[in-house]
Amino acid sequence: MQRPRAISRLSLVLLILGLSAVGGLLDNPWGRPLPVAPHLLRMDPVLTGWILLVVGAFYCATTLVCAFALWRMRPWAPAAYLSFVVSITIYMVAFIYLVRLLHPLWLALLFVVLLVWGLNLGWRIVQGCFIPAANRQWDRPRT
Q1: Confidence (pLDDT) at 122
Q2: Burial code of 22-57, b = ≥16 C-beta within 10 A, e = fewer?
């Protein structure tokens, strides 16, 4: 099967995100407090670091698996993309809850809107290449 250009680009973006997540995991202060001002954390700095390490490892793994599945045009690529969406959602919710960096509400909402827009764009690319139009129940007109 010929790989569409949009799938190639999406898989390369996911590969870059996955490799940057690997860098973040390697730079994590293992067992030491998170290097963030303590008044910005909702929990103990060491516990916050471990929680972000675990959800970051899940995000990293699903991102790299999804990039591989899309690049190789595996039939389970849509499921891999959905697992990537779940993992990035868990990571972002955990980070926004544990580290209070996005203090103005409008800034947090803008971030969430841009994230949802990007994930929806990626899903439309995956859906258009892997799921036949006849099987897309959500695209069918209602009778």
Answers
A1: 94
A2: eeebeebeeeeebeeeeeebeeebeebbbbbbebbb
